[in-house]
Amino acid sequence: MKKIATIILLIISSQLFAEEINQDQTKKNRSFSIYLRRYSTFIDSFEQRMLLQNFKYFDQYDKKTIPGFEFGFRKKFDNSNFSFQSEFQEYKKGNIGMRDIACLGRYCDLVPVSTGPYLRNQFRNTILYDYTPDKFRLSFGLRYIKSELSDGSGYRFNYTLGQKFFGPEIGFEYQTDKYWNFNLLIHYNYFYLFGKIDNRYSGIYTNRSPVSYNSDPNAIYVGGEFGIKLNYDFDDLYFLSIGILTLEARTKINSYSMTVNYVAEPQYKYDLDSITNFNYVIYNAANSSEILRSVYLEAGLKL
Question: Which domain, by its residues, includes 233?
Fold first, then answer.
């Protein structure tokens, strides 16, 4: 009887031990994570600055935040210090507000106006290397950015301002140890992208003469992205984060390319070309900056 009881106890203990091993392996094998972020972002965009440069009577006015989201995943390769990460980000707003000159008699003032819908997409693919496991990582990858601001009023005018860039980025990522399931993660990425800008306009001028230009010079988009977030792990499966993200970049265009040639009647063409291209020099349109400052909430799952 004692032998039977001993055998039963051995079987039960071996099963419990096997379950513990399986649980430990499950914890260690959670090498895939998926997450969704919701952004609230202030954007001082390239397109807003170009609108000011093209039509100097516009003034930047809208300081409201723009909503955005990001979907991403990260996969840690088995028996390796390498990981792969992919992210898709989108910002969209129906109307970007600026200010325009309005006159009543001899009295003129700047009044709020809509300058059209704004859309920005970003796609990143990155390889990360654990230089110090679970502490410090190096990253290198590719980044794609496309943004556009457009508006129109029937036959009176239509314009499209935008940019499209693709190229390499490098960076690093540092994370602290966990305390009470909390830890911090800090990252910085530097990117150097190649592409074009869109600078198109069509409308009417004095005596209802049609005018238009279409300029898409080659350009370079250079900048950096800094982020910090606080993570909380509910358990081995679910996590929640809150973070801040800042992107500062500069669009560099060959100064000889940053010109427009209007399609207009001869009596208007010279003045239009001269005034617009002179404004590009004054406002330094060949070297325009862009800033995005965000706060976000992130929810994720480890598999």
Answer: 31-302
